[in-house]
User: Which sequence fits this backbone?
């Protein structure tokens, strides 16, 4: 699953993931007809529409053995919210099955593939921002860190306030843009103070928010998706 | 009751808060400190997690037999010589208290901190009836002198600096007050001590009501709760019906997590168990004890979408961790209860319409759920409220059209692809060095402060055929 | 005004609509809590030293000052010393029968103006007089009905001879206790509360139970911790190793 933001704004991230997974021996398919997981509709309270979008997704990924999602929030939507959106028992069962087969990228690499050693595509000092849905929705703090700590050629430093929201929050970012930006500023101040060359995240929403802010600041620090720093190690495990 | 802040829209209220540099500093310092203290308290308390689960289970069990436990509480309070009153609305609660004040000829009322009495706007009503209400929690006292309202559930004057408090005391009390918390506290002690000794009416809330024993429990740090329930000749406690718990065994479960969540203390300094009026042989204690059971929207949620919020202990932990609260503080929310839980309580008390905008004052980051001692799923209920706002057509027309169109498009991949291509064309005039730095109309809400990535020259879907060929080569 | 029946009927109506919502269980209450408490007390008698050490740690952490004396006869001396150090002149105290020892006589002999609470009901003017004395007093002496090691908490039960104000109005509170009232945990304190509320209360039991965990404090001005905002600024606990006499209440 590429996710809407990944498809439209960050296709290069998707490309990297496809190549990375293939190098790790995974057979990658991309079922046609994908749009969005429906999270923006769901979070804004438009549940009938979200359910309709979810039903499409169930069909599209009906055949997939495992579904890898490069965004914690979309993975959370599929895993956490799809079953509850389905009223029909058969659809609910299908949603439960999909939920069980869906993995956020870092979780897939570490927990399904057991791969922790990679080479860094980005030399220098990296830090990590916990995206809210991955951390508190899927309770995943360790997998991304395991990957970043295990990176050859980069140094990992913890980000003070790493578990605090970046202020994106989907439509929140434009409903209360000043508040959203104030939260972002705090996050970016912390990123810049950490001395990192790049802040890594596992969510396209956070990336859009942080890149938008860093770019406006003219900062030298970059915001990168996890897939953008992982390069398969030769003979790595 | 009028809510003066509501004359301006939420976004503007938030903007004012963001521009208030004093407020920004105070909020940042206070919430950070509260977060650290809470974290430390639970770090050295391994059984805390299990107790949080247990506390929630107790709340749920109590709700399931709420009538049974309330009957028990009422009978036990009356057995101990107390009087119980029933208030369906805020107005009814006010008239009950006013009637007690009138009948007992009360002129001066001392109050210990109580969100329930804030919620029913009791002070204005007392004042109008010729009874002077004096808030005795230091923070509340400051707020009352400043004619403001609390900005935090447990730290009402969190938004005020010591210099502002000093200025306020100097003006309101007519005596020179230096900007020194120690001295300011001493001044307040002396002022309020007089009031405690003179007051004829003591008004409190209730942190818990213990059904099995008919006990009202008050948790404070300053000792004002003890004064209010012991010195005046009449004590009135206003308690939301959901504050009831079955037994003393349950009480200690809550005590073990409440203060840790609120201030990071092991226990608050004073936990006062009030078993009705003064008993024979006692030197102090009220001659009359009244318990006002308050509905005011709560009962309607027993079977409603906000049922979970009936478990709230009013500890304030969700405020401290909320990124939105930490930026805008309590007043910008515009109602009695601020922060994430406050949005739910506002909806409970004032109906869904009152949270049309507030329901969206959250990035749904989930920090509140993590911090909540009884694990109330606040983000889920915020989404439910948003749904209600949409389905009841309380949401603005334009918004419903936009989301309707979005839903329509996301179910139609061809339309989705067309929209992407249109976006690619439309963005051309706005591209600067690979980013969009300015957009008109609604889109300006993003670009005023942040750059926007352009729609990619080729989307992932448009690249897929190539990627597929790559794998075969 | 809404009547009890009407109010509860509405609740029942809503509860019926909510059928099936959520699951939960209340905490398991002890049956025969008084007997359970007797058993617990015997168990605790063994390890009182550990519990006292823990109490001392927690009590000091919340800003209390612990004094240990071997014999009850040393208590007045300790109180007098506290008073003297702070230049205090006047004392109010629980009645000797509720305290388990007489401190009023020896304190008065040391020149402190001391008033003991009456042992039984007095009329309103007399109550007002005592309240004024407590409000003016520098130091209040009370017993302790329960001391919780886990939290450093002193629990006092009001009643005849046991005024609430002695631990509240003076700037300094001195509480006297022994191993009999010491428990380890908050959960055990729950059992004690159950036992106290089991059956009709004794005639001279008051209507107020207070858990006191350190001196009165506030952080309402810029989160600066300040002591003694309404209640005592200083809290002392005097532990009597050999125990106090049997107390009333």
Assistant:
């Amino acid at each position: 699953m590429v996710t809407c933001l990944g498809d439209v704004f960050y296709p290069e991230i998707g490309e990297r993931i496809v190549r990375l997974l293939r190098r790790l021996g995974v057979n990658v398919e991309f079922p046609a007809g994908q749009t969005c997981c429906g999270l923006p509709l769901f979070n804004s309270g438009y549940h009938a529409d979200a359910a309709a979008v979810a039903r499409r997704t169930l069909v599209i990924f009906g055949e997939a053995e495992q579904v890898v999602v490069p965004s914690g929030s979309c993975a959370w939507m599929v895993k956490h919210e799809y079953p509850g959106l389905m009223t029909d028992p058969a659809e609910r069962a299908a949603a439960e099955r999909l939920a069980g087969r869906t993995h956020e990228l870092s979780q897939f690499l570490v927990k399904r593939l057991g791969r922790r050693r990679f080479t860094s595509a980005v030399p220098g000092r990296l830090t990590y921002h916990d995206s809210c849905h991955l951390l508190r929705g899927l309770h995943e703090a360790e997998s991304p860190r395991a990957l970043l700590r295990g990176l050859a050629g980069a140094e990992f430093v913890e980000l003070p306030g790493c578990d605090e929201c970046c202020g994106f929050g989907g439509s929140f970012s434009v409903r209360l843009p000043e508040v959203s930006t104030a939260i972002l500023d705090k996050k970016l101040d912390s990123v810049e103070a950490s001395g990192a060359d790049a802040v890594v995240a596992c969510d396209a929403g956070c990336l859009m928010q942080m890149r938008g802010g860093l770019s406006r600041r003219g900062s030298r620090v970059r915001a990168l998706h996890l897939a953008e720093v992982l390069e398969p190690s030769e003979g790595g495990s | 009751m009028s809510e003066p802040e509501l004359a301006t829209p939420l976004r503007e209220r938030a903007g004012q808060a963001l521009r208030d540099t004093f407020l920004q500093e105070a909020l940042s310092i206070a919430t950070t400190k509260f977060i650290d203290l809470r974290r430390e308290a639970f770090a050295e308390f391994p059984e805390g997690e299990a107790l949080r689960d247990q506390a929630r289970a107790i709340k749920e069990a109590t709700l399931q037999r709420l009538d049974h436990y309330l009957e028990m509480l009422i009978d036990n309070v009356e057995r101990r010589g107390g009087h119980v009153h029933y208030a369906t609305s805020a107005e009814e609660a006010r008239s009950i208290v006013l009637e007690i004040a009138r009948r007992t000829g009360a002129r001066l009322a001392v109050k210990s901190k109580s969100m329930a009495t804030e919620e029913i706007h009791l002070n204005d009503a007392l004042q109008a009836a010729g009874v002077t209400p004096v808030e005795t929690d230091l923070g509340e006292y400051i707020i009352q002198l400043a004619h403001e309202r609390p900005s935090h559930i447990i730290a009402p004057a969190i938004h005020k600096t010591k210099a502002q408090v000093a200025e306020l005391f100097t003006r309101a009390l007519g005596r020179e007050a230096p900007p020194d918390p120690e001295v300011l506290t001493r001044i307040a002690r002396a002022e309020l001590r007089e009031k405690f000794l003179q007051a004829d009416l003591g008004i409190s809330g209730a942190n818990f009501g213990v059904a099995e024993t008919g006990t009202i429990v008050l948790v404070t740090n300053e000792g004002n709760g003890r004064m209010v329930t012991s010195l005046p000749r009449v004590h009135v406690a206003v308690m939301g019906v959901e504050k009831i718990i079955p037994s003393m065994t349950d009480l200690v479960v809550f005590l073990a997590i409440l203060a840790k969540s609120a201030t990071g203390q092991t226990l608050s300094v004073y936990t006062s168990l009030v078993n009705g009026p003064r008993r024979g042989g006692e030197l102090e204690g009220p001659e009359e004890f009244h318990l006002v059971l308050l509905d005011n929207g709560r009962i309607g949620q027993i079977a409603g979408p906000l049922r979970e919020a009936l478990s709230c202990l009013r500890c304030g932990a969700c405020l401290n961790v909320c990124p939105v609260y930490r930026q805008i503080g309590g007043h910008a929310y515009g109602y009695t209860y601020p922060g994430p839980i406050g949005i739910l309580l506002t909806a409970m008390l004032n109906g869904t319409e009152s949270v049309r905008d507030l329901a969206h004052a959250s990035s749904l980051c989930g920090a509140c759920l993590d911090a909540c001692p009884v694990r109330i799923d606040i983000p889920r209920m915020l989404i439910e409220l948003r749904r209600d706002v949409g389905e009841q057509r309380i949401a603005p027309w334009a918004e419903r059209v936009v989301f309707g169109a979005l839903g329509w498009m996301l179910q139609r991949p061809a339309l989705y692809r067309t929209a992407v291509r249109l976006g690619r064309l439309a963005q051309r005039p706005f591209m600067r060095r690979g980013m969009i730095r300015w957009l008109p109309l609604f889109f300006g809400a993003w670009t005023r402060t942040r750059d926007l990535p352009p729609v990619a020259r080729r989307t992932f879907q448009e690249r897929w055929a190539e990627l597929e060929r790559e794998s075969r080569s | 005004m809404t009547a009890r029946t009407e109010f509860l009927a509405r609740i029942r109506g809503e509860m019926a609509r909510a059928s099936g919502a959520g699951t939960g269980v209340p905490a398991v209450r002890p049956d025969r809590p008084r007997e359970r408490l007797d058993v617990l007390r015997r168990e605790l008698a063994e390890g009182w030293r550990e519990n006292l050490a823990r109490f001392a740690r927690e009590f000091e952490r919340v800003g209390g000052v612990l004094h240990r004396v071997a014999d009850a006869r040393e208590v007045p001396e300790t109180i007098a010393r506290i008073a003297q150090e702070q230049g205090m002149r006047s004392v109010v105290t629980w009645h000797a029968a509720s305290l388990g020892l007489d401190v009023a006589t020896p304190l008065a002999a040391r020149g402190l103006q001391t008033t003991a609470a009456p042992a039984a009901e007095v009329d309103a003017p007399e109550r007002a007089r005592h309240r004024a004395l407590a409000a003016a007093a520098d130091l209040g002496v009370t017993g302790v009905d329960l001391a919780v090691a886990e939290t450093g908490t002193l629990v006092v039960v009001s009643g005849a001879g046991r005024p609430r104000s002695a631990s509240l109005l003076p700037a300094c509170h001195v509480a006297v206790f022994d191993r009999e009232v010491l428990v380890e945990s908050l959960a055990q304190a729950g059992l004690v509360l159950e036992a106290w509320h089991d059956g009709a209360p004794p005639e001279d039991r008051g209507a107020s139970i207070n858990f006191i965990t350190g001196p009165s404090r506030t952080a309402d001005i810029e989160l600066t911790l300040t002591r003694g905002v309404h209640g005592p600024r200083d809290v002392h606990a005097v532990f009597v190793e050999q125990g106090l006499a049997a107390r009333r209440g």
Chain C touches chain B through 86 residues (CB under 8 Å). The helical segments of chain C are 4-17, 33-46, 48-61, 75-85, 96-99, 104-109, 124-136, 186-196. The CA atoms of residues 84 and 112 of chain C lie 9 Å apart.
